[in-house]
Specification:
Blueprint lengths: L7 H13 L6 H9 L2 E6 L5 H21 L5 E6 L7 H19 L20 E3 L2 E8 L14 E6 H9 L3 H16 L46
Parallel strand pairs: 1-2
Antiparallel strand pairs: 2-5, 3-4, 4-5
Length: 233
């Protein structure tokens, strides 16, 4: 695995400091870190073909093993060795470039998750890997959301199956309330794009940038097997 200048152990320490620190509001992620159910891998530059090959294999492996890691709190975190210095729009573009590359590879082996829609304009859109639906959270140094600020470009993959299990047990609502309270205390506002699954497309939440009502998601799902033949990005 190509990681460039940062050592994996350095990234683990930095990630732990972020997740356990006062500038991060997601209590579920904090708990997952303490319980050892966060799977972390450090990769080369986000969006590059070699990086995408490695990321695809790692996230697919995580998706297959997720329930063995933890029934409720298994999370995959991918940190990247750059590119650095991106503004929010540039990072958003790169996030979708990376997710498109993952999908281009995933579709060769797997269908879209039954739980979610592949159309990024759908209220029931969620990203799919290995036929499992994930909510993706992007972090980077120049995010306007404090909780999303991190030294290295990062993508966090959270399972919708786990979200549903948390809802069934009456835990999800309490987590959501606590996270939003922490966001208000930390930044004085919650993310303006924030919404629950099924209210509007979650695609606008992935990068962390406050999008306008006319924002168009650049992601293009492969709706039939013919598209699988095009070169992976």
């Amino acid at each position: 695995m190509t990681t460039g200048g940062s050592k994996p152990e350095e990234m683990v320490a930095a990630l732990g400091a972020k997740l356990q620190g006062d500038t991060f509001s997601c209590v579920a992620a904090k708990t997952a870190w303490m319980r050892g159910s966060v799977v972390h891998r450090h990769f080369g530059p986000m969006g590059e073909p070699a990086t995408t090959d490695e990321l695809s294999a790692a996230v697919t492996d995580f998706a297959v093993r997720r329930d063995d890691i933890h029934e409720l709190l298994a999370t995959f975190v991918a940190t990247f060795e750059g590119p650095f210095g991106l503004d929010e729009t540039e990072f958003e573009t790169l996030v979708w470039q990376q997710l498109q590359g993952l999908h281009d590879r995933d579709v060769r082996r797997f269908a879209w998750a039954d739980f979610a829609d592949s159309d990024p304009t759908s209220d029931r859109f969620a990203f799919s890997i290995a036929e499992q639906a994930f909510f993706v959270v992007g972090l980077h140094a120049n995010s306007s959301r404090i909780t999303r600020q991190f030294s290295h470009p990062t993508l966090v993959f959270n399972s919708h199956v786990q979200f549903e299990r948390l809802r069934e047990r009456g835990i999800y609502g309490r987590i959501r309330t606590e996270v939003r309270a922490r966001e208000m205390a930390l930044q004085g506002s919650i993310n303006p794009n924030l919404s629950d699954f099924g209210e509007r497309s979650e695609a606008m939440q992935y990068s962390g940038r406050a999008t306008s009502p006319d924002w168009k998601c650049p992601f293009r799902p492969h709706t039939d097997g013919l598209d699988q033949k095009e070169d992976a990005r």
